[in-house]
Amino acid sequence: MKVDLELTVNGEAVGISADPRTTLADLLRDHLGLTGTHLGCEQGVCGSCTVLVDGHSARSCLMLAAAAQGREVTTIEGMASESGLHPVQEAFSRHHALQCGFCTPGFFATVLEMMSEGVLADEAIVRERLSGNLCRCTGYHNIVTATLELLGGRP
Amino acid sequence: MTYVGIPVPRTEDARLISGQGHYLADLAIPGMLEAVVVRSQDAAGELRSLDADEALSLPGVRMVMTAADLPESARAITRSFYVLTPQFVERHAVEVGGSSEPVLAAGRVCRVGEPTALIVATDRYVAEDARRLVLADVDPSPAVVDPEAALSPGSPLVDPAVPGNLHGRFDVVVGDPDRARENAEHRVSARFRIARSVGSPLENRGVAAKWVDDTLTVWSTTQIPHVLRSYLAPMLGLEEERIRVIAPDMGGSFGGGVYPEEVLVPLAAMRLGRPVRWLEERGEDLMNSRHSRDQLIDAELAFDGNGSFRSLSMRILQDCGAVNPFGITLPFNVASHARSVYRIDHFRAEGLCVLTNKTRNTPVRGAGRPEAAFVVDRLVDMAAHRLGMDPADLRLKNLIPADEMPKDMGMMYRDGNQLVYDSGDFPDQVRTALEASGYQTLRDRKPRSDRHRIGVGMSCHVEGTGLGPHEAAEVRVDTSGKIVVRCGSQPHGQSHATVLAQVCADVFGIRPDDVLVRTGDTALLPFGGGTFGSRSGVTASAVVRIASEQTRRKLEELASDVLEIAVNDLVFEGGRVFPRGVPDAGLTFAELARLAAPGPASRRPHDPGLASLNTFVPPSVTFSSGTQVAVVEVDIDTGMVEVLDVVVVDDCGTILNPMVVDGQQHGGVAHGLGNILLEEFRYDDTGQPGSVTFMDYLLPTATDVPSITVIHRSHPTPLNPLGVKGAGEGATASAPAGIANAICDALAEFGVEVTEMPISPARLLDLIDQGRR
Ligand code: FES
Ligand code: FES
Hints:
The complex is a heterodimer of chains A (155) and B (773). With 155 residues, chain A is of the alpha+beta class. Chain A has five helices and five strands, in the order ββαβββαααα. Chain A folds into two domains: 3-78, Beta-grasp domain (Ubiquitin-like (UB roll)), CATH 3.10.20.30; 87-151, [2Fe-2S]-binding domain (DNA polymerase, domain 1, Orthogonal Bundle). Chain A is 31% helix and 16% strand. In chain A, α2 (87-94) runs antiparallel to α5 (141-150). Chain B is α+β, with helices and mostly antiparallel strands and 773 residues long. Chain B is 28% helix and 27% strand. Chain B has a seven-stranded mixed sheet with strand order 3-8-1-15-12-13-14, with helices on both faces. Chain B has a seven-stranded mixed sheet with strand order 5-10-18-17-16-11-32. In chain B, a hairpin with a 7-residue loop joins β26 (576-579) and β27 (587-588). The termini of chain B are far apart. The interface between A and B is large, with 56 and 55 residues. Bound molecules: FE2/S2 (inorganic) cluster (2 copies). One FE2/S2 (inorganic) cluster binds at residues 39-42, 44-49, 59, 61 of chain A.
């Protein structure tokens, strides 16, 4: 049995039929070839798979693709525009906020959500908000710096 | 301008920030099947049979491979990850057995998680369904879980071939430790318990393989592609030439080796004639991969009333798990780093490698150095307390002075060379850390409430980095005029593409953008070492430098020949070679590359092309060092510890790219912080693992790790062309001890002495309670 799905991914309408137990992450990665969304635990803890669904961060490893029916999904592949990289991409690179880059797509979704909510550029608040995403490489130092800058805080 | 030493932005980033990385799970080979591994649920027992019939009959399942299906040569991984010289063995009384890790369990199981079968199916969902249908008939036997009990007479044996469960031992004696101890006025001692932790990169392991035209291509999340190839060739009965190992982008690694899945997946692909991939799950990674630490260390520091250290002695019990391909590596790393930056002329370290029914222990970031620093720096603080001295003053009193460098430590390193601290200025490093952290005034900081206490702690470390045996690189002038670097060491976050380009660019007088760095593929060049043990900055940069210089000489020769100008009168600038003062008269690298191309008109018929393949064989390791000061706040009602500040002073010799090095320090501190406050992989007393999700095995998050200040005090080493010393692990070595000392300082009124890693809030509360009584 398959379910027919219609959703928007990175601004493009997608119509696809998939096994009902397909997760959103597998739909993105395996069916749509959007492998920028990473799977680090598939247990909802590490945050690598975080994407935006209707502008809100969501763990795509826990969410079934069927639950994204009719909704708008944004992944790392949808961040840059014709005018260039998104400021989040630029800030992370400039501040060396990624080493292996595996956690990066998930952090991007979390930071994009923080920016759209207008989260205060306060280190304690930022650390709290980032604490749902694990990074084993950077010690978070540069991720926090980049995020504070993006939120309008100290560079 | 030159590029070594400046924060050149990373070339890797463009790909990684736009979702275009190529990690193993992103590989899409047409017709690829997916594999899952069936694993033992029992820690020990006889494996009577494995019934896979039902699994095999599930639609979509293509194969179930068990031990009986393995060719003789591929039944076990029998090579060890070390070579010990006879002199080393004799000098330090080393005894160590061979190692044989079953690729699939046969006849018996010896740990939970041990692979018993491989299932290959059309997709992962089907393969996982099939895994539930494989029935193992195991007659369980008592598991050996406690390493001390493992050594007691009458303990069951983990491996019938290893009597008494003692797989290896050594005894290091420097000076006359017994006499020094007898004559010393004071002694402090403790038993230190360092828990098992897991490397836990964010990407799990994975292996894929295809067998096409009698050639095997293996993709693996490996740190050592060439080494893996050399393991696979005899096991699969293939020439190395017919095996290509590719390490794609990797989501961290932090330690490893060669694993059974790296043999199983290629075998399955060869047998089925279809590409096969296995992607590890997080639970498997936590249970099976990159376990480390897990030592019980009894240690004693003897010293005089004026604070001079006399002797250090220790007995290191290493819980190796069920197999031990790393031999004495880990406990010997403790022994060879235990005296840290201190002058301790009399030293004894006895190491015991014990087998238990657990996952095998491997070197993970730090690999013995965090344990060593934890033990010695906790003892130093205990000694300071005994003498009523400030721990910083006691350290300063006992540091090896700069004018004693290079300092022979009176024992051998594991590579068979004499252990010599080659460079550094420890007193300057420690004083810098004290000043930068504002040490004198830190304790005046006000805690946030009257149930909070502030504490300051300090720790130092040394690290032998840049281990051999070799690293290889080829540097070639492309016909486009760009320079191509191919290197046998490959990254999993360490920025090779950026840093090696900086090293090469400086030799040719070009920009790093004009250098193309290629790594992670055995097809690139015949040899390669890999990335482990803080070695790439040292060995890869050295060999890239050497190969670049040799290729530059070929360019020079050719340009001199064509332009009829002496080599000494040639200038390299902007990808061109020209006579000094006559920039228009020169040739571009591209033109020179074409002139050197093979053919009847070649200007270099004896050595066509402009390339050089070189190796670098380091004389021995080079010692980086560091000092950390940590400030913590402890809640005495909950036992919760918050790390407020960490200052790192690091000496990694010549800094290739400060941005990258600082990033390594930040990550290293976080890893060490996790080790001391959070990370513990638990087994119950039947050998069942208890930490198989990130909810049970806690990694530090952004709220656990503070902002980190990194200061460099560089003393380049004479042991390699650029003066580089490793930077990848040092911060992990000092962090646990520094934080532990800060906790003890905060809780001095309760007489708390932290002797275990990690120290949980519950355990701290116990210690506080004991102090209150
Ligand atoms: S993969 Fe989804 S939270 Fe880890
Ligand atoms: S950069 Fe490697 S896990 Fe974050």
